[in-house]
Amino acid sequence: QAQLTESGGGLVQPGDSLTLSCVITGSPKNRYRMGWFRQAPGKEREFVASINWNGHTTHYGDSVKGRFTLTRNNAEKSVHLQMSSLKIEDTAVYYCVSGAYSDQPDDPAAYGDWGRGTQVIVSS
C-alpha cells in the first residue's frame, strides 16, 4: 500500500513563493504520472498540475499556468510544486496524487493514490 506525504504548506502573502513537496513510500498502484489537485472551502476540487514518469511532459491548470512549476525526482520518489506570484485565490488544501497514464491528466479518476493534503493560505 502506498503513502503519499505532502509538505511545505503554510501561510504566505500575495506575491510570495512557496514550494510543496510530496514523497511516495510503499507500493503505489502506479507512478507513471504524479501531480497535484487542490480544493478550496466551498469549491470543487481543481486540477493543478501533473508530470509524467520521465518529467518530460507536464500539464497545468489554466489558473496556475506561468506561475507554478512541477518537477519530479524518481530516485527520491518525490515531486515538487514550485508556486510563485501566489494569489489569494490559490488558498486551498493541496493534494498530491499518483496514477497511471491517461488521456485526461486533469481527471481525478486517473489517479489511484492520494495524499492527505497540505494547507496553503495566501492572505495579506
The main sheet comes to: 7 strands, mixed
What is the beta-strand fraction? Answer: over 45%
Shape: globular
Calculate the terminal CA-CA distance, rounded to whole Å.
Answer: 40 Å
Can you walk through the features of this model?
This protein has 124 residues and is an all-beta fold. Helices cover 0% and strands 49% of the residues. The protein contains no helices and 11 strands. The strands form 2 sheets. Strands 2, 4, 5, 6, 9, 10 and 11 form a 7-stranded mixed beta sheet that branches. A 4-stranded antiparallel beta sheet has the order 1-3-8-7, with no helix packed on it. A hairpin with a 6-residue loop joins β4 and β5. 34% of the residues are buried. The mean pLDDT is 94.
Task: Describe the structure in brief.
The protein is mostly beta strands and 124 residues long. It is built from no helices and 11 strands.
What are the SSEs and their pairings?
Blueprint (H helix, E strand, L loop, with lengths): L2 E5 L2 E3 L5 E8 L7 E7 L6 E6 L6 E3 L7 E6 L4 E6 L8 E8 L11 E4 L3 E5 L2
Parallel strand pairs: 2-11
Antiparallel strand pairs: 1-3, 3-8, 4-5, 4-9, 5-6, 7-8, 9-10, 9-11
What would the keywords be for this entry?
mainly beta; four-stranded antiparallel sheet; 124 residues; globular; seven-stranded mixed sheet; 11 strands; single chain
